Amino acid sequence: MPELRAALKGAGFKDLQTYLQSGNVVLESRAKPETVARKVEKLIAERFDMEIDVVVRSRDELAKIVKRNPLGKVAKDPKRHQVTFLSHPLAHDVVERLQSLPVRGEHLVVDGREVYAWHPAGVARSRLWTELAGKRLGVTATSRNWTTVEALLALAQE
Fold first, then answer.
1. Which of 73, 94, 123, 148 could bond 90 through an S-S bridge, CB–CB 3.0 to 4.6 Å?
2. Number of domains present in the structure of the chain
3. What pTM was computed for the model?
4. 142 and 99: one domain?
């Protein structure tokens, strides 16, 4: 993460903070989130020789995601409450497939470019989690547990 922070600083990004060793970065930019994502992808490819898809949310978007939390009354363990951040909304058939997967008390809410999921028995054997973490969504996606989502928002608001 120190190398990534240094590379991003060298590219002109400001107020850089990273969250643990998770690949999550909070930074300041006046550019649109899509522009930031492409610039960071290019930087990672050039500097680290890695092809990494980047998903960006603004501080305001992240605050709305946390405030909106449609599973807040159900999801009691933040480590088992996940948000999948999408580059684009999911196709209707993908949403239908995902909605057919929750079992054993799992819940799923697809809301624009986010998917909120509650896995009360954990993610290890969850077919829903396997789909959310896989490549069959048809869009770039990355998932974070609720603890991480709230921590990133706190960093962004500092």
1. 94
2. 2
3. 0.92
4. yes
